[in-house]
Amino acid sequence: MSQSNRALFIDLLKGIALLVMIEVHVVNSFLVPEIKSYRWFELLNYINGLVAPAFTFTSGMVFVLSLQKGLDELRKFGKKFWKKLGRLILIFIAGYLLHASYLSLKKISNPSYPHMIKELLRVDILQCIAVGLIILLLLRIIIKSDKVYYVTLILIDLFILAYSPIAWKIDFTKIFPLGIANYFNRQHGSLFPIFPWFAFIFTGALTGKYYVEAKNKIGELKFVNNLSAAGLIFFITGIMFLNYLFPQSLVNVKPNFFFFLQRLGIIFILLRLCWHYLEQVKDNQTFILEVSRESLLVYWLHLKLLYIKILDGKSLIDLFESKLNIIQCLIITLLLAILMVLIAKGWGYLKVRYPAVISKLVFITVTFAVIIFFTF
């Protein structure tokens, strides 16, 4: 695979994570509780638990690769900078809109229904990724030395991992407003706080840097082989410490460093498998890559379809929450995944055919939505 192919094995893993994420949300919402007690569900739950680490990791890795060219223009705050920053702000806004009960801050702030504002201020994976990538972007602009830049990322990564168990014990609402406090831990309902999820984003960025250097020095095959070897070591180390060497009191610490290491090991191995797959197929234009390229749209839209209230003021979640068996859940997953693939293909086609029109349309739509939200 050439550089012009944007290291497609990374995009492939990201696309797979997105499609599996649809299954995760469907199963978590619709599956009857009794089935969740079956032994085989433990395996499914473990696989589902790899989705968010893979998604955040590949987001960081792809983003660093995108920063390899045009740094001078970025540092001059030219068109490339504003385009990148604009997309990250779009991801940030989309994250909050996912949790907005109404497109109106006035309605959501109703003191009679305090749960709505708390729901709005929860930090989801989109806000986490957006803030993490904005930090990567700003540091890349401020720090001109490649060595200093990546050493800084390593130090931040190590700090996130070391401080995460401490951060989870602190009620940050005593220090910051709820909207900011939610970025640090899950005490008030956030799903993806920066501790520890930034570790996957920044480790992805560092792996991207290693990939850029290694592909020119030792080649991609050697790179992915090294990656899978490290992944196997990380996975076994995580298993050994979590299941055999650590006392239960340390295993139960959340978030756990060896939990991170175990998941990271699997991600490395999956990257190797994705690379191998793309080396074997002649046509790299798989629908999974199209899903990956439209990751924001696919993630945001499939959740909106699950939660939007359309049938007598009820959403699909309201109608079928914890009521369906595994076959019914898989059917809904398949239908939703097919719909997302078709939408991703259609939207991708329009972006290629009418790039200027689509760019303006997105800008106008988002701007209009934000104005409505703060005005009405």
What's the SSE blueprint?
Elements: H1 8-30, H2 39-48, H3 51-66, H4 71-75, H5 79-97, H6 105-108, H7 114-120, H8 125-142, H9 146-167, H10 178-181, H11 194-217, H12 220-245, H13 248-251, H14 257-280, H15 287-293, H16 295-307, H17 316-320, H18 326-353, H19 355-375
Helix pairs in contact: 1-3, 1-14, 1-15, 1-16, 1-18, 3-8, 3-11, 5-8, 8-11, 9-11, 11-12, 12-14, 15-18, 16-18, 18-19
Provide a descriptive summary of the structure in words.
With 376 residues, the protein is an all-alpha fold. It has one domain (3-375). The protein is built from 19 helices and no strands. It has helices at 8-30, 39-48, 51-66, 71-75, 79-97, 105-108, 114-120, 125-142, 146-167, 178-181, 194-217, 220-245, 248-251, 257-280, 287-293, 295-307, 316-320, 326-353, 355-375. Helix 3 runs parallel beside helix 8, helix 8 crosses helix 11 and helix 15 packs across helix 18. The longest helix has 28 residues, at 326-353. The chain is globular and about 60 Å long. The chain starts with 7 loop residues before the first helix and ends with a helix.
